Amino acid sequence: YADTCPASKSSKSHFRLHLSRNYGAQLIEHRVVYALIIINKAGGLVYQRDFTEGLNKLSVNDYLVLAGTFHGVHAITTRLNPLHPPNEPPSGIEVLETEHFRLQCFQTLTGTKFLLFTEPFQPNTDKIVARIYELYADYVMKNPFYSLEMPIRSEGWERRLVREMRVLNSR
């Protein structure tokens, strides 16, 4: 079912979609960031990276379909969002939780979406996405050879992102 709930004391509403609540109070000792997908403002896949071994592998076409589908669902949920202050743009799905993973979506002001897939009880996913966005700004957006909306191909970005996620996954 879908429900809205304030995630903080700010006036911004968050749209949460809970697919299942069967996980209860499980003790999870290891926190994991599984993967990152970046979608441009038109819904096109510009980046995809897995950070753990043993994940089910999807084809490139599957990732393209996933990006387009999420983009469409996100656009629809912006209209479902309850009333919001006029100075804030409406937000779509920001968190999707299942028994097996949690998806955290961060949308930039330019419409780029960062989808972070983590273990369901991974703490501070909003801070992890914010850190990834900082790296994106430093290594991708400041790269004079990068064209906005195009696939991300940057060795510096890739190296730094993988290093950060490796440290995070080893805790």
TrEMBL record:
Keyword Ribosomal protein appears in the UniProt entry: no
Subcellular location: Endoplasmic reticulum; Golgi apparatus, cis-Golgi network; Golgi apparatus
Domain of life: Eukaryota
A matching Pfam family: Sybindin
GO biological process: endoplasmic reticulum to Golgi vesicle-mediated transport
Transmembrane segments: none
Transport in keyword set: yes
GO cellular component: endoplasmic reticulum; Golgi apparatus; TRAPP complex
Major subcellular site: endoplasmic reticulum
InterPro entries: Longin-like_dom_sf (IPR011012), TRAPPC (IPR007233)
Self-association and partners: Part of the multisubunit transport protein particle (TRAPP) complex.
PANTHER family linked: TRAFFICKING PROTEIN PARTICLE COMPLEX SUBUNIT, TRAFFICKING PROTEIN PARTICLE COMPLEX SUBUNIT 4
Name of this chain's protein: Trafficking protein particle complex subunit
Organism: Lachnellula cervina
Lineage, uppermost ranks: Eukaryota, Fungi, Dikarya, Ascomycota, Pezizomycotina
Gene, per the UniProt record: trs23
